[in-house]
Amino acid sequence: MRLLRSTDLALRLLMRLAVAGESSPTTREVAGDMEVPYTHAAKVVAELQHLGLVDARRGRGGGLTLTGKGRDASVGALVRLFEGEGDVVDCEGATPCPLNSGCRLRGALRRAQEAFYAALDPVTVADMVGEPTGPLLLGISKGPRVV
To answer: Is the pTM of this model over 0.85?
Structure first.
């Protein structure tokens, strides 16, 4: 299973904010740190803000901060939100699969997908930034270092 770019960025952005300490990087700074287009980062930040996981303040002294809800968020729940609840394969697409009525693969893939999410459910954003990840996240920041 391959995550969407927005899912990957949302998780990395939350992890980056989890180690930010007192600093509040801007969306533009985080986009630069993560080497992604600003517009893509801005869309992800807007969704994370809508979900209550990130606070975003505009203007001088503004920036992004992780909320308590964001720090405690389940990685499995986040992946479900960003990926959607669809099947791994599209059996009903423009050209429906001729095996659709009696195929066992779709069910097996659905169970595998649920096992994937279940493995991520107990993991929180805070869990993801322990050693050695936290210092690595701080190392990619082009802004002031927080210790």
So the answer is: no
Residue 10 CB coordination number (10 Å): 26
In one-letter notation, the amino acid at residue 135 is: P
Q: What is the rounded CA–CA span in Å between residue 89 and residue 95? A: 12
Element (H, E) at 29: helix 27-34
Output the CA torsion sign for 77, 117, 72, 54: negative
Length of the chain measured in residues: 147
* Alpha helix (H) residue ranges in 66-132: 68-71, 75-83, 105-120
Q: Within a 10 A sphere around the Cβ of 79, how many other Cβ atoms?
A: 21
pLDDT digits (tens, 9 = 90+) for 27-77: 999 999 889 999 999 999 999 999 999 999 887 778 999 999 999 999 999
**Confidence at 146, pLDDT banded by 50, 70, 90:** very low
Question: Where in the chain does DSSP place strands (E)?
Answer: 54-57, 63-66
